[in-house]
Amino acid sequence: MELPEASTSLEATASAAAAAAERPSEAAALRALVDRVRAGEVDAAREVRRLTRASSRHRRKLAAAVEPLVAMLRSAAPEAGEAALLALLNLAVRDERNKTKIVDAGALEPLLGYLQSSDLNLQEYATAALLTLSASSTNKPIMSASRAIPLLIKVLKEGNPQAKNDSVMALYNLSTVTDNLQAILSVQPIPPLVELLKGGKRSSKTADKCCALLESLLGFDQARVALTCEEGGVLTIVEVLEEGSLQGKEHAVGALLTMCESDRNKYRNVILNEGVIPGLLELTVHGTPKSRVKAHVLLDLLRNSPYSRSKVQADTLENIVSNIALQIDGEDRGGKAKKMLAEMVKVSMEQSLRHLQRRASYA
């Protein structure tokens, strides 16, 4: 019985010894690879990209390649620049130290140059790199002080589909620094944001970030005016409210609530006219805790509509009342829900018809 244990122990010792022997060899190979990058070898940059694609260990061990890769990024040879860009992108993914190291090494200037490239692939890679770098709180103020925001908006308007998706996510990351909202607004982001929402899937991550960014921007009158002037602007947010992911719906109702709270008289009918009531009622039952609260507040702001009462089937109304009543605190929950809904359903038929007509016109 002891022989197998002894054999296993010997095998484990041999395996550990072999691993220990390999480690210095691997370390030497990685140092040699970095030296090759320093010498400007394009194939070495490609090897760094390959090794760091799915290995956090290699990202950590090849951090020394960052500075020579940034130097290569400035190369006039497109092939070298692309190889360096993709290697840096992989080094930055899920590695906070490398993210800050890349920016500290001066990568922003050449990356912003690639954002303006006529080569849409290079522009896409640069946008992806900036998205990754913008996730670092240390990098955000440095990127904000550069030309990143207006160039990302330009990509949002003119880039290929993937670059547009990455640019809106990078802009969202930068928007979490409150001072950046005015900088974003100054380059007229509302039309391309609405266009991106219209053209994509309402439940996508891109739609989530679009609505999150819009929710922040709509705190400013300039953005609210721009959205209402944009054909189908408010309607597109209502569609996310109905068809989006849970997070997308939360940001969509937040965006509409921000508008209505800023000037109820000005924006109440604008929102009602897009047929928002069914989506709001559903959200009070099936939304996240935050979106349920926001939906209740917005419903309250939208009530007392001047339109004539619509006929709603009694059983349908009772089902809605029952669901809403479960979400309302207080002793007379059912009565409170019925009172609120009685005021809301006055416009349901008119708005549903108007909503269908508007959707048909944008199809």
TrEMBL record:
Record-linked InterPro entries: ARM_PUB, Armadillo
ARM repeats: 64-106, 106-148
Residues in U-box domain copies: 38-316
Organism superkingdom: Eukaryota
PANTHER family: ARM REPEAT SUPERFAMILY PROTEIN, U BOX DOMAIN-CONTAINING
Name of protein: U-box domain-containing protein
UniProt organism field: Zizania palustris
Lineage: Eukaryota, Viridiplantae, Streptophyta, Embryophyta, Tracheophyta
